[in-house]
Structures are given as structure tokens and as C-alpha cells.
Amino acid sequence: MQRYIIIRLLQSLLALWVMSLIVFGLARVTGDPIDALLPIEATLEERETIRRNWGLDKPLHTQYLVFLSKAVRGDFGNSWKWQGHTAMGLVLARLPATLELAGVAIAISIVLALPLGVLAAVKKDTLFDSVGKMVALLGQSLPAFWLGIILMWIFAVMLGWLPTSGRGGISRLILPAVSLGWFQVAVIMRLVRSAMLDVLDSEFVKLTRVKGLSEWKVIWKHCLRNAAIVPLTYFAINAGVLMTGSVVIENVFVWPGTGRLALEAIQARDFQVVQAIVIIFATVFLFANLIVDILYAYLDPRIRYQ
Amino acid sequence: MSETPLLQVHHLKKHFPVTRGLLAMKTIGWVKAVDDISFSVPQGETLALVGESGCGKTTTAKLILRLEEPTDGEILIDGQPVHDLRGNALKAYRTAVQAVFQDPWSSLNPRMRVRQIVAEPLVINRKMSRAAVAARVQEVLDSVGLRPQQANLYPHEFSGGQRQRIAVASALISQPKLIILDEPVSALDVSIRAQIMNLLVDLQQAYHVSYVLIAHHLATTRYMAHEVAVMYLGKIVERARTEALFTEPLHPYTRALFSAALPGHPDITREEIILPGEVPSPINPPSGCRFHTRCPVAQSQCAEIEPEETDIAPGHMVACHLYN
Amino acid sequence: MRQARLRQSAGLFMVLMLLSLAFLGGDAQAQTREAKVDRLVIGLINPFRDYFRAWISGTPDHNIQHDPILEWLIEIDPDTGQYVPWLAKSWEMTPDGRLWRVKLQEGVNYHQDYGEFTAKDVVHNHALWCEANYPGRADPPSSAYRTGICTVERVEVINDYEVLMHCKEPCLDFEFYYSEAANVMMFSKAQWDKEGEMGYERKPAGTGPYEFKERKLGQSVLYERAPTPHWKHGVVDWKELMMTWTIEESTRYAQLLAGETHLTEVNKDLVDQLVSRGYKLVRSRGTAQQIQIVFGGLYFGTEDPQTGRYTEHGGITGKLDPSEPWTKKKVRQAMNKAINREELLEVLYKNRADYMYVHGYYPDLPGWDPTWEQRFPEMYGYDPQAAQRLLREAGYPNGFKAKAWLFPFAGAPELIPLVEAVQIQLLDVGIELRLEEADLVSTIAPIWRARKAHGYLAAVPPSKKAVEAQIAVFNAGKAGIHQFETDEIYRMWEELKQLADPTERDVLLRKIGNYKFENFEIIPLFNVFIEVVVDPNIVDDWAFPGWDGGDIGHTWRITACKQEEPCR
Asked: Residues of A with CB below 8 A from B67's CB?
């Protein structure tokens, strides 16, 4: 088990290093960063000064080494757009907001999708199942951003029950988390349903019924635990999506998270911040995958002793 | 023996609806999986149900286990109708009737340790102290030939034969009166089969437990069963004590089955009766005697009139116009 | 007889009515009710920069963040558009145009007990901009206006309330660069000495009617009314002022409707919807931006390293491509005459803009020529047949093909449908325009800068600034756009920089303006106002000139609606 974890860790670090190369290269490939840093009317002299100050006049590999040596210590330089803040400082300041949003969205989606998926599987081919399928279809085809605006319109403008935007307190968390989690509900529900159907058919489940276990216990205690591995896999892939897909939701709801930070940084070509964000995202993504892999081993003893 | 048979099945029927439609289901036909069968099993004996796949033997097992509800007829355990039981009576039933299924690889929960799997029937149906449960687990593992240290392991760490032993242990722990064995050895290596069969016979002798054995491998049947019932398309076509059936099979279908089985010795030659065609669909069983479409000795009345179950000799029943 | 008495009683009745009205009115005025909400929330679009230290980079497009708390030397009066005293009580130029004597307001105190605003603060703020190695300042100053600001070479202190601004060459636009139209706001020297540069970010102390309270990065800035009445504005209407930034249009809309903001910027199409829902449109008193279409490739000037003419950005020798159709004046005129400005005005601007005539020239700024308005219809006005005739004369009887860039511009989303409409109008006279989507920063700006924009049209919205600054930036190669460069214009601009006499300057500016006008420098379209929508229940009015640095300012002129009925 330990060996397994160590190998996975090393793999993650390798992936992270490759990410740093890509990120570094991209920021410089899409045009001269100076163009984005200064207004159109800046003079040539000013451009040269800025170029020197930011070390952009040095050869590319020198720049990369400088970048890497600092990055390893968590120093991604200073932000251009948000003067007086370091790039990493900005990202870390906004990260809790995104994690909060993603976390609540996941929680909502699990709380809704799990029972729905289980019920859809148990009541297969009934009206409930058909309704469930339709809900799933809607969930996957409605764009989150559109849903967000509609929900905002209904609940904040027309009904006045919730605030439109911003962060602070539970009332502001509801609309963006639901908009973000909606798609997840649909997907997880379908995954749980099909995983459950698989397990429900197993011999040992039939045996458990024979042994006298009540149907509900059969479903929740035996089936779900075995079916859980499928949505878990999905989460690993999804961690990344939730972090970055929330860009749209964060924008609509003016949620001060890393998604919005990324958008603004990209528009302003604040490449220090963009680098920091991408590396952080990559780290979170890799970390989430690592956790899931470890959980796999815990959940399914067969994987443990490979 | 004049005591009540442990298991009695009277005119049992199970018809599955065939539905069509996306949102609203419409029934367009019925699969007559089990269509009026009757038999009984005394305490301490084994009845084997044999037949090709699709003949309804597995469905019969499920009906006895209350995994399905019968469309008609009844099943009695110790004279009690099984399908009305609720509450404590139901729990008692679950304790009394257990099962061992065919596939050793999927019949054990991969996430549970062996001791948990084996203990489950006790834990669910009875209030016993942990120590008492643990003691029983050790006992029953011992009786199936497993060591106590193995109790903490996971199913995937055992071989197929060992897993079936675990399944048997789990079926035994509640001291059942009846165990349904659904092809318990067919998924095992030939060399292991004998071991498991021996184990089952030993356990029967030790604990006086009844078995309903579902099998399509006739050698197993001959070794383990006291009585054999042959099923075809949801009906029992012949039922007799094992030796009587094996020495003198009467029904044309039984004969064909036996002729298809490999002889015990390579030197024994037999004439193989090859049945034409395939087993018809249970949705539309043939009229009259269900077997008439493939029967080598079918007469004209076989297509029109269903043969009745007749006792040719005491304890030997046949449903065939040849013997009416 | 009877009639006379009737008239008498009528007259008496009238007098009584008037008296009672005056009495009642006076009574109403005597009431000083508070604003209906404690905190005014302003919904803006996109914070250009999220920090206060204005000298670091950028145009003054984000002056609004400074506006409640900091003050400038010179104010632009919203109603007249003229420069009026602010922290500078008076200013006087010497005849040679190289020296301004500025007298400062007395008794103005900084927040947070940082003492009185005096000459030392003026020196400090000038140095922040212009001194190369000012101690304590981390980043070097950079901005389009820096050259103009630092034409003032040295600030000499006469006494606490009087300074002399010495310019290295005639600096007639001093007023512009030290007004709220540019970005030399008066930070506190005392705070700098005590807290260092970052004190200006943590909690900047200013002299304005509001004090800085809190910034939530990327979300909002909160200001609160200063504890003592302001030296100039007395007690302002709101206890607290909050600015929020929301890029997403529909969210800003929802915020206003839900009452979370009381005043918001919206794009033009939503303005009408909001007005029909009962909200009130308030616009800048004067126009704030010009909308024009630029011809790429008008590089007529000759480089001269000796005089430094057009030597920035790699020089221009040989960059002109005479085969490009619109290098011919007749073609430029033809294209102008193919544009139906009336239609564009009605559809895109809902008739809420004015026509513009010459880039960089405004009626209230020097150099304005009133005859342009009369001459415009004949020279530039919509006449497709004349356009086709001109094209024929220029040698393009069947028109020609060209390209135009499409790019989003924050705050002016109508530029894209504008170019699309122009494409159709030009097609009517045989000019086929191919539209290319491109990114302003990474694609277009470098091409402009390298003087390689031949064959590309682009719609740009330059903001209002001092006329000389416009010419320097757009015609004299001092920045990256190179809109229309000729030796003639450069020579005139060089001459302009040496003039000290305002009257002479005005004459020369007008001459330059006419040169641009008669040479069909661009396709001039509109002068637009900055529009905001307010909740008339909460807000009565907002008087702002529209050129607070290309942004909105004068936040202390947001007046509260203090009557029961919404203030229409």
C-alpha cells in the first residue's frame, strides 16, 4: 500500500513539472507580454524599462530556470494587474472561495444524486425511472451559466428571496452552488443508477436477501458501497472541471474565486497570475486524483495488494 | 414416515409479463416459466431438479426462497405457507431456509471479510452476543474444512472451491432446515467438485438438513439426490427415487437427457437419442404435451391433450401419454 | 369698473398664491432629510486596475476609485466643461508659457490626521510621477500622460500655499494634466513618510468628502463619509458609498432590479429596457468619447532621426503602400460619403449621441472650428452616388476589397455591430469589406505599432483629452496607433509645442484640425456620452462632465432623492 502511494506521488510530481513547462511556454507564445502590460499609448522607452524590470529581456531558458527556482518556493512573482499583491498570494486568497463553492456544489449533487440514482435503479423501468432519466437529460444539456442567470432572475429579482451575487453567508452560496452542482446531479445520478443496476444483479446481493436482510439495508449497506466506486472515479476527473468550470458561474455570480481570477488575469495578460493559477489548478487536480486512487484501494480490497 | 414433509410445493405457477413501451408499460404476453408443478421434500433428504436451461428450475428455486412471488399455487414449509409470512415468522423462515448459489466468484461480497459474510444470517435474524456469533462462525468454518485464521481474509484471497465452502458455511450457520443448492459445483474445477459434494453429503448426515439441488450434471445428481424431478418448459415430466430413475427412465425426454450424458466408463456404449430442434420459447409453449414437437415417439393426441401426472409405481411419476 | 375690480382681486389672489407657494417651498427646503439608504451602491463594469497608485501604469480610466477620497488640483466643471479651482485656488501662466504660478487652497486637511494639504504634497505627487528614482517608490511610473505631466520639470515651493511649476517647454496644457481628466491626484506626503508606499494601498488618506474604508479585492470598495464636513462640499448625501464590479451584463441588470445596486452602468441596449421599467437615465453632461473608424496604413510621414521625427517603433521609411486604395484622399472621402450616419445613430445609439467632425476636437476645447458643422454634410455627408463618382475618379470604378478588424472593447460593445453595419453600407458602393476577428492586445496593437496595418479598418473609441495630447498620440507617433502621419502635421505639432500664447495656440490647433478635416483623416462618426442608470427612488441626479479621465467621476455630485415620490 505504501509503495502504491509513493509511486502515485512521484507520478504526480512528474506531471506537475511538465505542467510548469507548458505553462511557462504558453504565456510567452501568445505574443509579447509587454503588449498586455502597458497601454497602447506607452512609449518605446517605457516598454524597454518594463521589459528590463521584469527580466523579459533575458533568454528564454534563463527565464525558465528563474521561474522554476522561484516556483518551487511558491514564489510566482508579483501580479501586474493587482499591484502590491503577489501572484501566489492572490490565488491562495481566492482559493478558499472556489473550494467552498465546489465543495458545496459537490455536496448538493451527492445529496440529491445518490438517492435519486439508487431509486432509479431500484425502481427500474417505472415512471420514477423515466422521470429520473429526463431529469438527467435536462441536467446535462442545460448550460450552467444559463441556469445560473435564470435562477438569479427567479429567486433574486422576481421573488427577492436570495441576493443576486457576491460572497458572504449561506444565502449567497445557494444559487451559485446549485447552478454549478446541477450538471453534477445529472451525471452522478446516471452513474449511480448504472452502477447500482450492475450490483443489484449480483449473486451475493440475491444471497443477502435470502439471508433475510431487509431490502433497504441490502441497497444501502451492500449495493451502494460496491457501486460507490464508479461515482468516485468521476470525482477525480471532475475535480479539475469543477475548479475551472466554475469560471462561468463565478463570473455570473461575482464570486471571488480563482475562476474569476483566472478570467481577469488572462484578459489582462497578467501572466504571473495565470501561471500561478494553472499550477495551483494542476496541483489540486493531481491531488484529487491521488486521494481518489488511495480511496479506491481502501474501498476495494482487491486493488490494495496488487 | 408419516410426519409432514419439510417442503411441499402444490401446483406452483410463475408467469412473467412481457412488456413493451417507453413510459407506460403494456403487457403483450407471458413467459410461463413455471407452469403447475408439485413435489415435496422430507426432512433430511435431497430432491434434485434437472432439466435444460430455461426449464424453470432456477425460477422454482427463487420461488422457494421468496425471491419471486408465485402467480399461483403455494409453497409450504413445515406445513406453513411461505409467502404470507411476516415479521418474526419471516425471520424464522429466513433462518430455516438458506441457499448456496452457483458462481463462487460473485456470490460473496468482495468488500466484506469472510467472518462477516459467514456471520450475516445470524446477525440479521437473531439477537446474539458478539462472542456467541464469533463462536458459531468458528464452528461452522471448521465444519466446512476452513481454518479459523482464514476468517479475517477477503473473498478474493481464496480459490473457487474455498469460496464455495465459505458460501456453504454461511448457509449453515443459522442451522437451517432446508438449503437450496443452485448448481453448487458446476463452476468449479472437476477435481474440486468431488470434495464439495462430499462435504455437502457429510453435512446432511450430520445435521439432517434437506437440500433442493438444482443441477444439469447428472452424475452429481445421482451421487447426492434421493429423489429426482425432471423439468421441461415449466413442467415436471417425470419424478422418481434416484436409482429408479437412473435404472429405468420412462419419459422420452428423460431418456434423451440420460443418453446425452457421458457414460461412466468409456467402454460403455449407448445409443444417443438426438432431439430435433430447439427448446421452444416459454412464451408460447406448444399445445398439448409440451414435448411433442421434439418427441421421437409423439402420437397424434400428444399435440392436443396435455398428459396427466400418473404414478406408474409408488414414488415414480410420469406425465406422458405413453403411460396413461 | 367691475372689470377693474376683478383684475384687482385676481391680482391679489395671484399674490396670495405666490406667497403661500413660496412659504411652502421654503418650508420644504428647510427640511434636510437624509438619503433613503445609508449606503449607496454603485454597480460598475470592470475595474481597469485594482489598486490606487496611479503612477504605475495605465490611463486614468480607473479614476473613479480615487474620486470619493482624493482630490486634484483642478476640477472640470460638469455643467460648463471649464477648468475650475479645486485644491488649486488659482493658477496663472507667464507669457512664455513655461511657468505656472499656482496658489493652493488653505485649510484643507487629510484624513487620518495626516495634517494639512500644502505645497510639500504637490512636490511629492509630482515627483512620484516624474522623478526617475524617487526614494521609496518601488515601480517606475508609466502612462500615456506621463510625458505631458512631466513637461513640468520642477515644482518650486514659494510658501505652504504657493508653488511655481517650471516647464521644460511651453506647457499650455498644464490645466489638463493636473485636472481630474488626468491622474495626478494629491496623495499625502505625510502618509508616505510614515507608512511607505503600501500605505496608499492599505488605507489611502485623501482630502475628499469620503474616507476609504475597505477594499475586497475583485469585488468592491467601500467608502464612508468623513466625520467632519468637507471644506468644499459640506456634508455629502450618503453615509457610505460602495463600488462593485460585475462583468456579466445580466448580473448587473439583476442587481439593479433586485435593489442591490442603486446606480449602474449598463450597455446601451439594456438602458431602454430599464427606462421602460421606471429607472432613470443619467448621462454625462458633456460627451466623453468619440467613435471613429481608422484607416490603417496612412503612413505619409518621413522619418528624420535628426529631429527624432517618427523614429519611435522602428521608424517609417518605406512603410507607405501607395497601391492601397485609401491612401488616396478621394477614396477616403468616398468611403465617408458611403456611410449613413443617421441610420447608425438611430439604431446603435438610439439617437442619444452627437455627430463628431474631427478626431480629438470638441466644441468646448481649444481649436474648435464652428464651420465644420456646416461643411460636414457636403464633404462627409451620406451620398452613395457621389461616393461612387469619387471612386471612379480615383480609379476604382468597381470598388475594391479591404479588411476590417473586429474586437471587443470593454464599455463599447456596440463597436462590433457598428463595423458590421458599415460593411453593408460600403458594399452598396462596391467596397467589399472582409471582417476579421482579432485580439486587440496580442494581434492588432503590435501591427499598429509596427506600422503594418495596411488595408485594415478598425473602429476605435478614443476618450476625451487635451487636443495636443490627441495629436501627439495619434498623429505624431508618440504612441502605438499611428492613425494619420504626415510631415505637415508633424511640423505643425512641433510648432504647437513651442507656442506660449493661448490665442496663437488656438489658431494653430484650428489649422491642424482643418488639415485633418480636409484630408479625411478618418471616418468620423459620433461623440458619445457616458450613460448610467439610476433608481429614481434613491438617486436624484449625478452631474459629471464625462471626461474624468475617460471614466466617471464627481461622485460627490450624486444627489439623493429626498422626497417621497421618485425623483424624475
From this structure: 206, 209-210
Residues on chain B touching A225 (C-beta within 8 angstroms): 111
d(CA A51, CA C131): 19
Interface residue A295 vs chain C (CB under 8 A): no
Name the residue facing C251 among A36, A42, A164 (closest C-beta): A164
| Element (DSSP H or E) covering residue B17 | strand B7-20
Give me the residue from B95, B106, B170 closest to A202, CB to CB: B106
The pLDDT of residue C244 is 92
- CA dist., res. C27 & res. A284, Å (int): 66
Q: Over the Cα atoms of chain B, what is R_g?
A: 21
Q: Which residues of B touch A303 (CB under 8 A)?
A: none
CB B112 within 8 Å of CB A301: no
Apex C494 CA angle, C492 and C497, nearest 5? 110
Higher per-residue pLDDT: A106 or C127: C127
- Specify the pLDDT at position C175: 92
Measured CA to CA, the distance from residue B218 to residue B262 in angstroms comes to 9
Topology of B7-246 in CATH? Rossmann fold (3.40.50)
Contacts of B22 in chain A (CB under 8 A): 130
Residue C481 in contact with residue A40, Cβ under 8 Å? Answer: yes
Chain A interface, best mutation among B111, B120, B127, B164, by max A CB count within 10 A? B111
Domain ranges within chain B, ordered by starting residue: 7-246
- Give the span between the Cα atoms of B9 and B34, in whole angstroms: 12
Share of chain A above pLDDT 70, in %: 88
Q: Is A207 on the interface with B (CB under 8 A)?
A: yes
Interface predicted TM-score of the whole assembly (ipTM), two decimals: 0.79
Block residue for cell numbers 515627483: C127
* Residue of C12, C16, C18, C15 whose CA lies nearest to C4: C12
Q: Does A39 touch chain B if contact means CB atoms closer than 8 Å?
A: no
Q: Is residue C306's pLDDT more than 50?
A: yes
* Candidate from C140, C260, C312 with C-beta closest to A49: C140
Between the alpha carbon of residue A136 and those of residues A132, A183, A191, A197, the distances in Å are 6, 8, 10, 16
Structure confidence at residue C31 as a pLDDT band (50, 70, 90): very low
Residues 6+ apart with CB under 8 A from A86: A75, A76, A77, A78, A79
Find chains touching chain A: ≥3 CB pairs under 8 Å.
Answer: B, C
pLDDT higher at A53 or B195: B195
For residues B310 and B324, is the Cβ–Cβ distance under 8 A? yes
Instruction: Give yes or no for a contact between A16 and A282, defined as CB atoms under 8 angstroms apart.
Output: yes
Alpha carbon distance, N-terminus to C-terminus of chain A = 9
Residue contacts between A and C (CB atoms, under 8 Å): 127
* AA letter at B290: R
Give the model's pLDDT for residue A42: 60
Contact (CB<8Å) A42/C257: no
> pLDDT tens-digit profile of C390-424?
999 999 999 999 999 998 877 788 899 999 999 99
* Closest residue on chain B to A213 (Cα): B124
Say how many C-beta atoms besides its own lie within 10 A of residue A60's C-beta.
Answer: 11
DSSP letters spanning A167-191: -SSHHHHHHHHHHHHHHHHHHHHHH
Q: Which residues pair with C435 in a beta bridge?
A: C404
pLDDT for B76-106, tens place per residue? Answer: 998 888 888 888 888 888 889 999 988 888 8
Q: In this structure, what DSSP letter does residue A305 have?
A: T
Chain A with chain B: Cβ pairs closer than 8 A: 63
Show which of residues 144-203 on chain A sit within 8 Å of chain B, judged by CB atoms.
202-203
- Each residue's pLDDT tens digit, C226-282: 999 999 999 999 999 999 988 888 899 999 999 999 999 887 778 888 999 999 999
Partners of C55 on chain A (C-beta within 8 Å) are none
